[in-house]
Structures are given as structure tokens and as C-alpha cells.
Amino acid sequence: MTSGDMNNSKITIYVVSCWIFAAFGGLMFGYDIGISGGVSGMDDFLIKFFPKVYERKKTAKENNYCKYDDQLLQLFTSSLYLSALVASFFASKAATKLGRKPTIFMASVFFIGGAVLSAAANNKLMLIFGRILFGIGVGFGNETVPLFLTEVAPIQHRGAVNILFQLFVTIGIFIANLVNYATSMIHPNGWRVSLGFAAAPAIVLLIGSFVITDTPTSLAERGKVEQGKAALKKIRGVSDVEAEYKEIVAACEQAKQVKHPFRNLAKAASIPPLVIAILLQIFQQFTGINAIMFYAPVLFQTMGFKSDGSLLSAVITGLVNVGSTFVSIYLVDKVGRRKLLLQACCQMLISQVAIGIILAKSLGETGTLNKTLAIVVVLLVCTFVMAFAWSWGPLGWLIPSETFPIETRTLGFAFAVSTNMLFTALIAQAFLTMLCTMRAYTFFFFSAWIFVMGLFAIFFLPETKGIPIEAMVERAWKKHPVWKKLF
């Protein structure tokens, strides 16, 4: 990175508070990922909403791999992501027309509504509708927060700041696992506490939406040039921001010439960031991470852990998830994006294959793993989660947020978010059925995808470390051996 690429900036208390408040959008998302699987395994929840699953679960000789296979139970998890998929496009429009700040406010309001309705649910319809409100909140939050963090971060810290979103996702998952562990002992309404507590991070985000400034790019894009300049001075902590702001205004003026962003997104020059953004989201889900995170308690019960033991094992993997994300924050702007992705592919591949082999050889349709092998599987899950947490997890959000030009940024990122939600929903809806039909070979299925992801990172992914967003076309895409042919 050249000195000319550095932003003239100071790290102030105000800008750090903006980063942290916004990142609570990630904590909302992570809490929901973590809470779903734990609640799905609680007997009180199953008795009330899914009695057939409860009866199947307590049958002593029921197939280990199939006792939780129920489409409606899986819809409880996946309905959120289907609504988030649709909501992300409305969020894209809101972020462009209204600004990043009010869109973050709307995300928090929808999520609080989802928490209240879910905690009060007395029938499946209320439960699913609460999930849909959760999904709208996630769609608005996941669309806007990574863009906000990328646009307010100094270039030299852009990767680390953006990864705060994923860090807070992992913290949310970890907190959810702790909450589930505690509420599993509260009968019969522990599940209501778990779902209702989702309002807590949304309330913090709601408060934060009044504290943070809108991004200079968003303000300039909407013609509020002087406000944009004042916002840039505020988040940089210095008065001399002329050079950086001129680049932002110039990029916004160029973006205004684009009258039809959908049409512009279909042009040859827009194909590289769009393809990369979409494939990163697909690959992120086909690592199998959300299959493990959604259903970790269920998965560990399948392996023979008791209910409390399975929730505790999920807490351990959640703690590993949080700690490993700090590795990414430290390394992403030092070693770059591609090296982290490639290293993680190797580690995740070994972990998934080993889990598959152990389960294929040692876990039949009935019975359990012996204690030693069960502990080995938990350790392998931890090494898998570790690798994902410093690579495909955070970078799946970072890279799309920094590679689109301003004229297609919110729309292009909406495609990334909606793709993520679509494949998250597919995995959530299909995993328990896959586990029932494919059994241990489910892990070999994900292993094959991880191998493909490694090839993708080697041949198609440019290194974006240290490149200003406005210079991404010239310094990343036009110099890439594959993508330069489109320019």
C-alpha cells in the first residue's frame, strides 16, 4: 500500500462507537443463527409446536440420523432467510434513496417486532410470521451494515473494520448458545426467553442508529455535499479531508450518470464483482458452516451427547468461532484476503473429511459414538469452525462490499445478500433431511464443495488488500489474468 492510498485520519472515540453500534446488526444476525438450533432441540418447544418430532426423538431405537427430519421444523429456521432474501432488495433501494443510517434504524425495528411476536407465539402461524419479521430485519441489516462499515473505514483499516460485522455475528452465535444452555433448564417457557432475548441486540442497534452519522458517500450520493464533507471530517477526526472527499464526490457524480443500475450491472465491466460476490455467498454456505451452527445441539445429540452436553458443546464451538474471528481482524490487512481463504480451505477440508470418516465407520442408525470419538468429533468441528471464522465467514461479506463501484454498490451488494439468504435457507431447509438420507456422507458432500472453493480462490479471486474502492477497476479487475479480458 502506498502512502497516497492512506486516509488522513485519526481513530477517535466517536468513529469507534459508530463501528461498534453498526456491528450490532451482525450480532442480531448471529444471535438468530445460534438460537434456532438450540430452540429446535428443546423438548418444551417441540411438544408445543412439533409433537410428532418430539415423539420420534424420544423413541429409543429411532434412526440416529432421522429423528429431527421434519420439513415444518426446518421451515422454522429457513423462513427467516427466505424473507431476508426478498427484503434485501427493498433494503438496497432504501439505502440508496434514504441513506444507510435510516435503513439501519428500520432493520432494528423489524427485528424487535420479530422477537416480540416469536416470544409470544401460541401457534405455528405466529411463530412463522415472527420469523418473517426477523428475516426482514436481517435482510435490511445485512444489506446495510457491511456497506456502512466499508464506507466509513479508513483504507488502511478497511478489512479489519468490516470484519467487525462478522465478529459480532460470531459473538451473537456464542451468546445464543449460552442463552439456550440456560433456558433449556427453564420449563415450560425457556424457548420464549431465548427467542424474546433477540430484541436486546436490536435495541442497541436502534439506539445506535441515532448516534451514528450517515456515510459521506451516501450523503454525497443524495446531493448533500456539505453534510457529506462534515460527516467525513467527523469520522476521520481531522479537518483536512479535501483529497478524499473530492474522490468520493467524483465517484458519486459518475454514478449519477447511471439511470438504470440493473442494466449497468449486466455490462461486461460489472460481471467480475457480481460473479465474485454471488459465488462467495454460495461457497460460504456450502462449506457446511450453517449446517453446523444452526443445528450444532441437534448434531451433537445425534452423536450421542445428552441434551445439556450437546448445548455445552455448541457453546464451546461458539467460543472458538468468536476467538478465531479476531485472527482475521489482525491478519486481513497484513497478509491479504486470498491467503486466508486458501489456508482455510485446506484446514476445513481435512476437518470435514475426518468427521465424515469417523461417523461413517462408527455411528450406525442406532447407538452412539464412544466418548473418545465423540470428543474427537467436537475437536474436529472446532478446527473447522476456527478456519471458517478467519476466512470465508468474514471475507464473504468484506470482499463484495469493497469491489463494486458506487453506481452499482447497493444493488450489487443486494444480490450478494439475497444469494447468501437463499442458500442459507436452502441449507437450513435441507440439512436435517440430508443428514437422514446421506448420513455421514453429508460431510463428504460439503468437503467436495470446499475443494472447488479452493480452486475458485486460486484462479478467479483478485487480491483487494490496500486498494482504494474507487481504484478497484484499474488495480484489481484490469490486472487480473481472467477478468481483464472483459475490460
TrEMBL record:
Domain Major facilitator superfamily (MFS) profile, chain residue ranges per copy: 18-465
Its topology with respect to the membrane?
A: Multi-pass membrane protein
Its chief place of residence is membrane
User: What does the UniProt keyword field contain?
Assistant: Membrane, Sugar transport, Symport, Transmembrane, Transmembrane helix, Transport
Organism superkingdom: Eukaryota
Q: Which GO terms describe its cellular component?
A: membrane
Q: What PROSITE patterns has UniProt attached to this entry?
A: MFS, SUGAR_TRANSPORT_1, SUGAR_TRANSPORT_2
Extract one GO molecular function annotation from the record.
monosaccharide transmembrane transporter activity
Q: Which InterPro entries match?
A: MFS_dom, MFS_STP/MST-like_plant, MFS_sugar_transport-like, MFS_trans_sf, STP/PLT_plant, Sugar/inositol_transpt, Sugar_transporter_CS
Which compartment or compartments is the protein found in? Answer: Membrane
Q: Name one Pfam family in it.
A: Sugar_tr
Q: Which residues cross the membrane?
A: 12-31, 72-91, 103-121, 127-149, 161-179, 191-212, 274-298, 310-333, 372-399, 411-432, 438-461
PANTHER family, per the entry: MAJOR FACILITATOR SUPERFAMILY (MFS) PROFILE DOMAIN-CONTAINING PROTEIN (PTHR23500:SF550), SOLUTE CARRIER FAMILY 2, FACILITATED GLUCOSE TRANSPORTER (PTHR23500)
Q: Which family does it belong to?
A: Belongs to the major facilitator superfamily. Sugar transporter (TC 2.A.1.1) family. Belongs to the major facilitator superfamily. Phosphate:H(+) symporter (TC 2.A.1.9) family.
Q: What is this protein called?
A: Sugar transport protein 2
